[in-house]
Design goal:
This protein has about 130 residues and is of the alpha+beta class. It contains 4 helices and 4 strands. It has a 4-stranded antiparallel β-sheet, with helices on both faces.
Length: about 130
């Protein structure tokens, strides 16, 4: 099943830049590889992440996002411990997220949308 996930740092802080952005990209790809989830598209923006992945049908979206957010948060704080000080209660990710499923019909539309995010800001109306 193909899932499109979107999530952001707490308070929509623009934390995901430079070395942090590169580290988050690598970390998410590593998590997916270790779980045998195929990364179809990934875009890390300063204030949110788009991830389009393909997983076996027995995986559920709630479990997937818990692994992605939980594991990445641990790794980010190990590498960039100073981030904890700038975040209230030491949580990097907002508790909310978006998830949608996609079949082959809309896969290219989602890929194009994610790729176009580099030039603009995410909005719930897009």
């Amino acid at each position: 099943i193909n899932y499109h996930f979107v999530w952001c740092p707490k308070y929509r802080k623009e934390l995901l830049k430079g070395k942090i952005k590169d580290f988050v990209e690598d970390t998410l790809k590593t998590i997916c590889l270790s779980r045998k989830w195929e990364v179809l598209e990934l875009q890390v923006m300063p204030d949110h992440i788009h991830l389009f992945i393909s997983t076996p049908p027995y995986e559920n979206p709630t479990g997937i996002i818990k692994v992605l957010k939980g594991t990445s948060a641990i790794q980010i704080f190990k590498k960039f411990s100073q981030l904890r000080k700038s975040l209230r209660k030491g949580h990097i990710w907002s508790p909310s997220y978006y998830v949608g499923t996609a079949g082959k019909v809309t896969e290219e539309t989602i890929r194009k949308y994610i790729q176009e995010q580099e030039g603009g800001h995410f909005s719930s109306t897009q």
